[in-house]
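## retry 2 of 3
previous attempt timed out at serialization; input unchanged, resubmitting
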Amino acid sequence: MAGETKLHGILSLFSSKQNTSVIQYNEFYDYLKRYAQHHIESQPNLLPYITSTAESLHKDLLKLIEQKKVFIINPDTDKKAIVVTAFLIDFYYKRYREIENNLSIPYPVVQDLPRQVPDEVYEKQTVTDLIYKSFDNELSDTNNLYALIFTRELPMLLYPSSLPLNNLVDISINKIRFMLRKDEYHDYFLKKLRSSNPGKELSVKNFFSQIITRPSETLDSLKTSSDAFYLWNQLCFFIRQDYEKIKDLTVEHVSILQAIQITETAITYFKTKFQQDQQRLTALKNLELILGKPPYFFNNDSIARFVDSRGVPLLGQYSEQDLNEWLHEASTSLENKDLPKLLVFKLETEQRFFILKTRVIPLIVRLASESREHIAQAIVKDWFKKLKAYEAVPAIKDQKAFEELLEQIVKNTSPILYALLTANFLPLVHYETRSTQNPVSDKINLFVNGKRISYSELLMLNRHELHTDAKIMLPFWHSIPFFSWLIGLFLKKPNPKKTKQPKEIQKPEDEKQDKEPSRKEELKKNALEIEKKLVPAGSTLEKELLRTLNEWNRILNTQAREDLTEDVNALIRDYFRKVLRSLKSHSFTKDRVENLAKTLVNTPALQKIQDKKELETYIQLYILQIVKKN
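## retry succeeded, writing output
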């Protein structure tokens, strides 16, 4: 590798001295030998070019030919020569620098190459392909000479990759500007633009003024302004239309047509990129809007499945990298030394969730409200059983034990609520919410004197009331102290006696009942699998049922609300029981549940309910509940 790299440098040096891309093989052979002899002390790796010049030169040239850095012409004649691509790249790079200073100089074209230079010295690319690949950083080779292919039979333009593409586009725009500065063209094309845009004379005038007097702003406006795209396209069309009518095109006419096509292609690219950026920004705004909607907490998988109002996935309108960068930025950037707008919390299972800072307190309030009744019923039921069995219940007598009981229940039944209540950011969120006088802070004060309120205060549960509810359910003698003490002393739970039946009687009965339970178990198993897909992580079927019910049933009158709920539930039950008679366990899938829900939503009886989407979700969840309890 070092040999051919060194040789390439010597070839470039020699061709530069000769001021030609085509150097005679014999002349270079002699120059290489003299060069090696003169620099052998400082560059010992030149020794092969002294001891075996022909062999070493031939070997390294072959490697350079493979890399298309050099080409051999007339190989078997006395006129054998080497074409050095680097000289051509440098030569045409300097030509474009000259054009920047003198716009009347035409673009270099393929016909300008020395006659001996083979076609392989340049790589053909359409104008569109090269501009799109270059702006998208898909051209890896920075030492290449391209021949740009135009439509409408224009000559191929030579473009060295060492010249930034922005410079080529800028030269093209400047060539158009140079032409428009001439009086006859300026007034003519300005008039055409004005007549094509009635009512927009001022915009056209400003656009034309920017092109003529503020050239440095032109390229930037093309990249960022949607108005500029339209006017530039019109202007390029008018110029091309007039120039293509000319029968005998001069070099100047060809140069303008080439500039027009380069500019039009760049405009199309910038317009597409601008639209994609706008779509990406809109999708990211939709992402933030969805994060602010129930259930308020989302993991990476659920965020990746977000869709817009048309049902189109957001992932695709922005890339996965855009999503990850936005999530990282939103969850790490501090706003005026406040917490980031997006917070991250973990469950004990290490599962990560994202939640908007403004939704933390509302979610805690909602989850606490949803959990209250469920927790109260569970405690009353548990205490009733223990009191009936005359077991000691520390949580009834001791407030600390009661708080520990509530914490453990919340931890087990509502892991999201527990994770938020124990999150490090909660005190700061609460402080920021109250300091900004957010209306949410009026609903609940989570901290008093710097300490978070107890679980009993959050859930609004009183152990004395729960104790009373449990005692009411006990038999009457538990309320009479003497009888209660006496029965508690002697009463023991009788051991249930097992009735033995003859094997010959039991066997047919078992066989009779085997088939039905197995089907029910399969349906319940399928229902649990579907529940995992429909119910967000960290929530439960019951909570989602309650949430969706509150979304579609917003009647304020309590009795009317309950009546409507029962009517809908009865309709679902009746319909599903008919389906259940012929339902096979293997066909009970998520798709089947969704289809059943859609069928019910479209029935005349449910047409007056407005929020069809939440109602459909509710029906799906209610069907799962029926199967689980069946």
